[in-house]
Design goal:
The protein has 574 residues and is mostly helical. Helix content is 59%, strand content 5%. The strands form two sheets. It has a four-stranded mixed β-sheet with strand order 1-2-5-6, with helices on both faces. The protein has a two-stranded antiparallel ribbon with strand order 3-4. The longest helix is centred in the middle third of the chain and has 44 residues. It is a multi-pass membrane protein.
């Protein structure tokens, strides 16, 4: 079976692995922490989704309540602006969510029908004679279910509740992955990760289209009116929490979905949320102070900052989209995010870029606050103005403090200044050309004597090299007897490759691999979703293989760790 994904060739190979090879008692079986099965769904995961639902409802409800209050007070101008920043972003996100549903559900229905009539396995030929009768009996119920689902989803999205349904569906998939075992558990885990990716991207887009402008607007109204209504403070607080929550949630779900990244603990998520809460809070207060005095110049400043940030991102040569114009649009959207906070869009060390961004942000906050303090109206006393200035400074300082806490103690890859790196990887050999070593397979104690080297796709915590850096890896690894998980991504070795980097080519090892989805694309050089999370056609392939294979399929990208001969072999098999 083969498919095309935005110009990327995709092939599927199946070694028809028997179930007996993947039993827990077998010494070559994978441990529980493999990404194919995913980590167990816990009560903390469920509580996190419930809290996300609470944040979603709080943000929307307080904004609508405040808009109604403006209308009753006769402030029709503030009522209109508040309502616009609620309705328009929500409508945009609902359209995108419904578009994804149409694509997924239409393809799911077509695949189910096609799968019943065309998909064949070794056992299907024995039951082929009864297939037409079974299909005919299921046509009417399936059609009724399809119509009901379309009506249900249409009503939900018209009522602006598409994200709510996705959150509830994620809870259901998480519970199913918890209760089931083996094959069904893997299937529900894949679906849970896909749903979580969709929710996170939708909510992040909504946060910066709705919550961020709403926060600046309400703070400007407070400062302009020289007073704070309880509903104004409640709405601004909910918007700020929503922004910080979604940025931290995005990073967590992103790391949970990628097999070359270590997962983020909830302590790290809370630290990152506090980091963004205080830095964005200081930023928006500075914006509101300046906008309350210089409305025209504030618009010029925002546009200028957005243009500079967008140009900076484009110069960084991001590689998120498949076409040049889509990439430019993506960079423009990220430029809007950079108005408020830092958002890493490129793989590799980001300390210098982050330090540069926050230095510019600090200078802008000081300049905006100083301009307001100098040209503020007479209704604001010196003592009150000094308190506001201290509030901006302390908020930014607290945000910087929690950022340091995250990177020095709670980062998934370990302390920034430390040398301990947890997880299923060991350090490779780093040279002037980048990463030229590879990672030892993590073995259980019973497997310590069976050190079989494999070539994996870019492992967790290690930077990926560029295509131009392809070359034969240098053997510089050392064995480590640590209880962890076996690597998930494996490239079938070439007999002529370096012996220190190859898995022993035997019929038994080939039988252990199972189905492999080989994607003719390198792993992207940006810290964002992999292609099989972005491209919904690859999702369809994964979920289809989950239902027809005894072993979970593995996703294999063109690896920059391959030697020249491995790359040639890889290209000829795709």
């Amino acid at each position: 079976m083969a498919a095309k994904s935005d110009g990327a060739a995709v092939s599927v190979e199946d070694d028809n692995t028997p179930r007996s090879l993947s039993e827990p008692g077998n010494p070559v079986a994978r441990s529980r922490c493999t990404a194919a099965g995913g980590k167990p769904y816990t009560l903390l995961d469920c509580c996190w989704v419930l809290c996300a639902l609470l944040v979603f409802f709080s943000d929307g409800a307080t904004d609508l309540w405040l808009a109604a209050d403006y209308y009753l007070r006769g402030d029709y101008w503030w009522f209109g602006l508040t309502l616009v920043f609620v309705v328009v972003p929500s409508a945009v996100v609902q359209v995108l969510s419904f578009r994804w549903f149409v694509y997924d559900y239409s393809d799911a229905g077509a695949d189910a029908t096609a799968g019943d009539s065309t998909l064949s396995t070794k056992d299907s030929d024995q039951h082929g004679g009864n297939a037409p009768a079974v299909n005919a009996a299921n046509v009417t119920p399936r059609r009724c279910c399809t119509i009901c689902m379309w009506v249900f989803q249409t009503v939900l999205h018209v009522l602006q509740l598409g994200q709510v349904w996705r959150y509830v569906h994620a809870l259901y998939l998480g519970a199913q992955s918890r209760w089931h075992r083996n094959g069904p558990r893997r299937h529900f885990h894949w679906r849970l990760m896909f749903e979580s990716a969709d929710i996170t991207m939708l909510r992040l887009l909504e946060a910066f289209l709705k919550s961020a402008p709403q926060l600046v607007l309400q703070l400007s109204i407070m400062i302009h009116g020289n007073g704070v209504l309880p509903l104004q403070g409640l709405s601004a607080s909910a918007s700020l929490v929503s922004l910080a929550w979604m940025i931290a949630s995005y990073q967590k779900v992103l790391r949970d979905s990628r097999d070359d990244k270590l997962p983020m603990s909830y302590k790290a998520v809370i630290a990152q949320m506090l980091w963004h809460f205080f830095t964005i809070g200081a930023r928006t207060v500075a914006f509101a102070l300046f906008a309350s005095v210089f409305q025209l110049y504030f618009g010029i400043f925002i546009v200028s900052h957005w243009c500079v940030m967008t140009f900076w991102i484009i110069q960084g040569e991001t590689d998120f989209c498949m076409s040049k114009w889509e990439e430019i649009i993506y960079n423009m959207v990220v430029g809007i995010i950079y108005i408020f906070c830092w958002f890493n869009v490129k793989e590799g060390p980001s300390r210098f870029r982050m330090a540069l961004y926050y230095s510019v942000t600090l200078a802008e906050n000081v300049a905006l606050t100083a301009a307001w303090y100098t040209y503020r109206g007479p209704q604001t006393s010196d003592s009150s103005a000094l308190v506001v200035v201290c509030l901006v400074a302390c908020s930014f300082a607290l945000g910087t403090f929690f950022m340091l806490v995250y990177y020095c103690w709670l980062h998934p890859d370990g302390p920034v200044l430390g040398s301990q790196w947890g997880g299923c990887v060991d350090e490779g050999v780093v040279g002037t050309g980048g990463m030229v070593g590879v990672i030892d397979a993590c073995l259980t104690p019973s497997q310590g004597s069976q050190t079989d080297m494999v070539i994996t796709s870019p492992p967790r915590t290690l930077p990926r090299t560029k295509d131009k850096d392809l070359g034969d890896p240098v053997p510089g690894e050392r064995d480590r007897d640590k209880d962890s998980c076996l690597p998930v991504f494996q490239v079938r070795p070439s007999p002529s490759s370096s012996p220190a980097l190859l898995h022993r080519t035997s019929s038994t090892s080939r039988a252990q691999e199972g189905p492999v989805i080989r994607i003719d694309l390198p792993r992207k050089r940006y810290p964002a979703w992999d292609a099989h999370f972005i491209d919904r056609r690859l999702r369809k392939t994964i979920l289809l293989l989950e239902t027809t294979s005894a072993i979970s399929p593995r996703i294999q990208y063109r690896s920059s760790l391959m030697g020249s001969k491995e790359v040639l072999e890889y290209e000829t098999t795709v």
